[in-house]
TrEMBL record:
The gene is gluQRS. This is tRNA glutamyl-Q(34) synthetase GluQRS. Belongs to the class-I aminoacyl-tRNA synthetase family. Signal peptide: none annotated. It holds the Pfam family tRNA-synt_1c. Its EC number is 6.1.1.-. It comes from the Bacteria. Keywords: Aminoacyl-tRNA synthetase, ATP-binding, Ligase, Metal-binding, Nucleotide-binding, Protein biosynthesis, Zinc. Gene3D superfamilies: HUPs. GO terms for molecular function: ligase activity. Residues 109-120, 127-137 have a biased composition (Basic and acidic residues). Residues 109-137 are annotated as: Disordered. Residues 7-282 form the Glutamyl/glutaminyl-tRNA synthetase class Ib catalytic domain. InterPro entries: aa-tRNA-synth_I_CS, Glu/Gln-tRNA-synth, Glu/Gln-tRNA-synth_Ib_cat-dom, GluQ/Sye, Rossmann-like_a/b/a_fold.
């Protein structure tokens, strides 16, 4: 059997913090524990926020922590053709449609206490654009109207297996697990790509995991619910199913999950204060 494959996949749009250290450290240690491989992936599809200097600083922080990974590092920005191909496949299946509503229009349309919301609390995308004719869609695109591509959830569910689920490991030792029923309908018509970038986080992550042969996805609890969308895309695109472990989060001073703006928990700030890598590992309970 092939060795298990783990990955750490940060976005270079800010400096790494303690939450990243926890996730990277868990992946590396779990891979070592089971004789697996540890990969690094740079999720840099956001062309405006992903800066080359931040990529370099991110790698420096990970090296300072004592982590090692296989080469070459996969950078999403170098694989846009892969994502575009998957998007075209979904278009050919009739499972995505162009969505033209601006954020302001969506807000105005959904400014109702009873409007359904996704697991992250955002309002579900209105169905208005699904009623446009093919001719109207083509006209708007030809005129250069800004748009995204959204998954037609109702149609996608018709193509999905009747019982969609994933294997969730409940502990970092991969000893106790259970099957979790996936409910992607809770997310409504999720964004799959933009007109300027032929992908989104959801589409990229399932394709990257498949291309890299990732067998064990270890990531934060904040992405637990999104796994339902990823399992749906994996089924639609005939991609392999990894197993999952969603680890605890490191919380900031406000009791919420850390953000890159939480300077006090930044790896670079801690390094400047004289912390050692061992102190970081103790802080995230991985010493």
């Amino acid at each position: 059997m092939a060795a298990p494959v783990f990955r750490f996949a940060p976005s270079p749009n800010g400096r790494l913090h303690l939450g990243h250290a926890l996730s990277a450290g868990l992946n590396a240690r779990m891979a070592e524990r089971v004789g697996g491989r540890f990969l690094l992936r740079v999720e840099d599809i956001d062309r405006e926020r992903s800066k080359p200097e931040l990529k370099a600083l991110m790698l420096d922080d990970l090296h300072w922590l004592g982590l090692e990974w296989e080469r070459p590092v996969r950078r999403q920005s170098e694989h846009m053709a892969d994502y575009a191909g998957a998007l075209e496949r979904l278009k050919a299946m009739g499972l995505v449609y162009p969505a033209f509503m601006s954020r302001g229009e969506v807000k105005a349309h959904t400014d109702d206490a009873h409007w359904p919301r996704d697991p992250d609390g955002a309002p579900l995308y209105p169905s208005r654009d699904k009623d446009l004719s093919e001719g109207e869609r083509a006209r708007r695109i030809a005129e250069g109207q800004a748009h995204s591509w959204r998954l037609d959830m109702a149609e996608a569910l018709k193509r999905a297996p009747p019982s969609l689920s994933w294997q969730e490991w409940m502990d970092a030792g991969l000893q106790t697990g259970r099957r979790v029923e996936a409910q992607p309908e809770a997310w409504g018509d999720v964004m799959i790509a933009r007109s300027t970038v032929p992908t989104s986080y959801h589409l990229s992550v399932v394709l990257d995991d498949a291309r890299q042969g990732v067998s064990h996805v270890v990531r934060g609890q904040d992405l637990y619910e999104a796994t339902a969308v990823h399992r749906l895309l994996q089924a639609l695109l005939d991609l392999p199913e990894p197993t999952y472990h969603h680890h605890r989060l490191i919380l900031g001073s406000d009791g919420r999950k850390l953000a890159k703006s939480e300077g006090s928990a930044g790896i670079a700030v801690l390094r400047e204060r004289g912390w050692t890598p061992e102190q970081v590992w103790r802080e995230v309970s991985l010493a």
